TrEMBL record:
<dbReference type="GO" id="GO:0000150">
    <property type="term" value="F:DNA strand exchange activity"/>
</dbReference>
<protein>
    <recommendedName>
        <fullName>Resolvase/invertase-type recombinase catalytic domain-containing protein</fullName>
    </recommendedName>
</protein>
<feature type="domain" description="Resolvase/invertase-type recombinase catalytic">
    <location>
        <begin position="7"/>
        <end position="133"/>
    </location>
</feature>
<dbReference type="GO" id="GO:0003677">
    <property type="term" value="F:DNA binding"/>
</dbReference>
<dbReference type="InterPro" id="IPR006119">
    <property type="entry name" value="Resolv_N"/>
</dbReference>
<dbReference type="InterPro" id="IPR036162">
    <property type="entry name" value="Resolvase-like_N_sf"/>
</dbReference>
Amino acid sequence: MIIMKTAAIYLNEGNESQFGVSIEEQLDILTKIAKEKGYRIEKVYIDIEEHFITGYYPKLNELNSKIYNSDYDLVLFYKSFNMFHEIYDYLKQIEFCINSHVDVYSHMEFIDSTAGSEGFKFIHGLIATDDCL
């Protein structure tokens, strides 16, 4: 029996108001990634408290807590540039995991941990069940 890996998608309303990236466009992009990677999408969250995390720019520790305490193998989210530095700093802390344990999906190719802001602009997801988180 083949067991399908499950994914959740988090859509950021802030991207629509600030960058013109509609909820529908975010969902299309992340759905395509999930399906290409063989994940079954189990839940779609948006920026409302009962769904996920309030606010346009959730803090990483809150996000990780929500991910870690779920049964999802993958959580995909389309982030705004405003979150970039916080997430980049976080990834630097777990850089030893990036190549072997943590899947990072991006519009721009992820080069290495020294790539700076040109290395990647959008992080789409992190494997949720990895010890590095």
